[in-house]
Amino acid sequence: QVQLVESGGGLVQPGGSLRLSCAASENIFSFYDMGWYRQAPGKQREVVAGLTTDGTTSYADSVKGRFTVSGVNAKNTVYLQMNTLKPEDTAVYYCKSRNLWGQGTQVTVSS
Questions:
Q1: Partner of 38 at 20 to 30 A CA spacing, among 27, 86, 95, 105?
Q2: Tens-of-pLDDT digits for all 111 residues of the chain?
Q3: What gap in Å lies between CA 55 and CA 71, rounded to an integer?
Q4: Rounded to 5 degrees, what are φ and ψ at 32?
């Protein structure tokens, strides 16, 4: 069973940066599109960014210009670089591919 594991979350001040990683136990990102999602307390899970197998990226309007998704197929890993973080970015961040979800990593933006 393929597993996805997110890491890199933490507490950061507003304006700061974090880089999240999504590591797959097998090379699935070469064959399946993937997405980064987040869920804040009391809110529905929402898509943040996407990366297709041909390298096309997409972003929610709320993070466009601040977040960047990238992948390294040789490492079975996809990253989400998050810059200029805002308190409203606080959420549990998940990666998803081929109908598989990771366990999530908490991102808290607070002074």
A1: 27
A2: 899 999 999 999 999 999 999 999 999 999 999 999 999 999 999 999 999 999 999 999 999 999 999 987 777 999 999 999 999 999 999 999 999 999 999 999 999
A3: 8
A4: -130, 140
CA distance 4 to 25: 7
Cα angle: 65, vertex 69, 75; to 5 degrees? 160
- Token pair belonging to 66: 């601040």
Which amino acid, 90?
Answer: T
Q: Which amino acid is at 67?
A: F
Give the tokens for residue 37.
């999602």
User: Rounded distance, CA 8 to CA 54, Å?
Assistant: 25
